[in-house]
Amino acid sequence: MKASKYILPTEKENPADAVVASHRLMIRAGLVRKSSAGLYFYLPLGLKVLKKIEQIVREEMNSTGALEFDLPILTPSDFWEQSGRWSAMGKEMFRIQDRHDLSYALGPTHEESFSFLLKPLLKSYKDLPVNVYQIQTKFRDEIRPRFGVIRSREFIMKDAYSFHIDDSSLDDTYQAMRVAYRKIFDRCGLKTIPVQADSGSMGGSASEEFMVVSPIGEETLLLCNSCGYSSNSEKTPLILKKENGSAKFSEKKEISTPGKKTISEVSTLLGVSESETIKAVALKSEKKKILVFLRGDLELNLHKLHSLLKIADSEPMTDLEIRELGLIPGFISPIAPNDKIKVLYDRSLQKDFPYVVGSSKEDFHTQGFILEKEISGLPEFADVALAREGDLCPNCSFPLKAEKGIEVGHIFKLGDKYTKAFGIQVLDQNGKSKTLTMGCYGIGVNRTMATVIEQCNDEKGIFWPISIAPFEVSLVSIVKGEDQYFKIEEFYNVLMNEGIEVFWDDRDLGPGFKLKDSELIGFPIRITIGKKFFESGEISIYNRKKDQEDSFVFSGFDDLVARVESMRQELFTELR
To answer: Which SUPFAM superfamilies did the record assign (predicted)?
Structure first.
């Protein structure tokens, strides 16, 4: 490809609204342009990268025996109502009505559609297992699109769904997908960590996210450097490094705490650590009022709570709603007031420790409150607090390390949530009807592209892994006159005929501009031919990742091709 025939709108300056490297560089390198909040145009260079990632995904999925489909993006509301997710998906799902007042969703995911499609096609255990997938545009009405294409409203996803006669078969496919995902991300040049994760609204018994450690990540990962345990903090069981020792206040009595409603205010006033207090969190879901008590220095983990109570979402109660339940906001006692509210105690609490708690009385707290003495029939404590760095590994008790991560892939064991909802049954080996079990597996293609840039950039721009670079070789020519131009064109044609992807910058621009564009865009290999070649036969070849340039005297096209092929193979080998 010749740059003179290409749309190549590179920029010198960073866009004002781009706060992360991938967003800045995708704009500056001419890969994308913004349409509106969370929506992007893909230009030819950016589209080439996307298509290469898609092809890697396709090859690895096909190698596992998965079958590619293409389903409608528009999905009838009937499908979502059948699974119970028409309301559960909330405001993030784009919904539309046609001229006949029929409701549809712009698909954020396709469990329902594939279930509907495959129900009449699967008759017997002999048809199983089957793993189906598509690579398709998805939609999500993000409340705050950010970080360019990392969190956008329209995105390309590879979504796959497997159907099985039993859990053993599901386990086999789940592990095959796990291996395939590692291969996909390795081939894309991404260093990923599989971590245990919460299944959220997807449901199911188990899931893992493929995370890329990055300071811009929106997820917190907890990692064990001793045994290799890894988990999203949403999923990590809380095991405290140590429990409270002796308490400042052991005698039970009421203390005046005028206007002190927060844990921080109370602990400062009384001179106790926040871990010696009990925090009350009042929430409401669609059908439940919930009151959670946990140690004052900890945060509630909503994902654990929702999973435990089997609810899709919750939100804080207002002060008025709290008072209507007979409670005093900021001064709630751990003694449950009535049966109108679901009460949970987090396992961070010690039953025999004298805590500072609310007194159920305006402007008063109680010191020396011991749970096992004050609450009759104390229930089993639940794990609903958020684990943190320094808490203990659930496998080996080594202190956990926290890292920020970007999710690029997610695999789930869904169980029978969708197959039951859609009545997907086959005849088993004994001729009896059996409901299938199901898995699903997603990869964000645009997000993978942006995350590669987050890992592969420097002060000059991007350095693409050669497997997904828009072009493998940049040919930069610095020539005067037609004779020199036609000579460089001979180099271009030879390389192209050898099957090497070449982007020839033949624009009538200065050498500095061309070289900077090549480094900004991030072509893995650059060949520069200019004045020295026409004087002494000298050519330079540059490795973008290593930022290393070597010069040699041209001795023939075979030698040049061999040098390029050697560098290509080196760069591909680094991906394994």
So the answer is: Class II aaRS ABD-related, Class II aaRS and biotin synthetases, YbaK/ProRS associated domain
pTM here? 0.90
Whole-number pLDDT of residue 201: 53
Instruction: Provide the pairing of β-strand 548-553 with 538-543.
Output: antiparallel
Q: H/E/C letters for each residue in 491-543?
A: HHHHHHHCCCCEEEECCCCCHHHHHHHHHHHCCCEEEEECHHHHHHCEEEEEE
The span from the CA of 440 to the CA of 356, in Å, is 46
What are the C-alpha distances in Å from 358 to residues 446, 488, 525? Answer: 49, 81, 66
Domain boundaries, the chain: 16-69+107-236+401-454, 253-374, 466-573
- Nearest CA to 163 out of 198, 106, 116 is that of 116
The position carrying tokens 């009350």 is 280
CATH of domain 16-69+107-236+401-454: 3.30.930.10
Q: For residue 46, give the DSSP letter.
A: H
Whole-angstrom distance, CA of residue 321 vs CA of residue 318? 5
Other residues' Cβ atoms within 10 Å of the Cβ of residue 60 = 22
Is beta strand 39-42 parallel, antiparallel or unpaired with respect to 74-76? unpaired
Nearest to 409 by CA among 438, 380, 445: 445
Q: Which residues contact 255 (CB under 8 A, 6 or more apart)?
A: 270, 356, 364, 365, 366, 367
Whole-number pLDDT of residue 199 = 63
CA gap 47, 31 in Å, rounded: 7
Q: In what order do the strands lie in the sheet with 342-345?
A: 315-316, 278-284, 289-295, 342-345
**To which CATH superfamily is domain 466-573 assigned?**
Anticodon-binding domain (3.40.50.800)
Identify the H or E element spanning 58: helix 44-63
Tell me whether the omega of the peptide bond preceding residue 129 falls within 30 degrees of 0, making it cis. yes
Query: Which H or E run includes 342?
Result: strand 342-345
